[in-house]
């Protein structure tokens, strides 16, 4: 519990950093096909949200497919995160070669009260999963060694490379970054 509070406080204090790192996250192995192994599934309003710890979320961070994979770390309480979500949604709907996964860092007890209503109200089409791992000091540097833990944060990757972004995006910025991965 204390680690969760420390991570949450650091996310609030740090805010939205402006950092871009190439060749990250630290990907230990590539996954051909995702094996879903959530630690919990929360259902409500005809919406199902899978909950993962860092170990079981690894397959989402290491997909080996022919698409550009975009992983966005966000939370319903993060105003810059919520502001940029429509850009991820638009890109996912517009481009069949892009696969969007939205990893919510909301507390698991907030899934029923905030995450599911948010998904429904905003008609999110991208896959939304929740990361429930209070050991942020352990898993945050595994995503990117320089990640402060601030959100929004995004990983864009394909089979050859991966880049981590600790920033907010406009649609044009997001599309430009994704397109860099298509030409490689």
List the helices and strands and how they pair.
Layout: H1 2-14, E1 19-22, E2 40-44, E3 47-52, H2 54-61, E4 68-74, H3 79-94, E5 98-104, H4 111-121, E6 127-131, H5 136-143, E7 153-157, E8 162-166, H6 171-182
Parallel strand pairs: 3-6, 4-5, 5-6
Antiparallel strand pairs: 1-8, 2-3, 4-7, 7-8
Structure in words:
This protein is an alpha/beta fold and 184 residues long. It has one domain: Glutaredoxin (3-Layer(aba) Sandwich). The chain is built from 6 helices and 8 strands; from the N terminus they run H-E-E-E-H-E-H-E-H-E-H-E-E-H. An 8-stranded mixed sheet has the order 1-8-7-4-5-6-3-2. The radius of gyration is 15 Å and the shape is globular. The N terminus is likely disordered.
* Integer average pLDDT: 85
* Second CATH tier, the architecture: 3-Layer(aba) Sandwich
Question: Which regions contain 5 or more consecutive residues with pLDDT less than 50?
Answer: 1-31
Instruction: Going across the biggest sheet, name each strand in turn.
Output: 1-8-7-4-5-6-3-2
Principal-axes geometry comes out as globular
User: Radius of gyration from the CA trace?
Assistant: 15 Å
Based on secondary structure, the structural category is alpha/beta
**How would you spell out the order of helices and strands?**
HEEEHEHEHEHEEH
List keywords for this structure.
184 residues, disordered N terminus, 37% helix, Glutaredoxin, alpha/beta, 8-stranded mixed β-sheet, globular
Quick gist of this model?
By secondary structure, the protein is of the alpha/beta class. The chain has helices at 2-14, 54-61, 79-94, 111-121, 136-143, 171-182; strands spanning 19-22, 40-44, 47-52, 68-74, 98-104, 127-131, 153-157, 162-166.
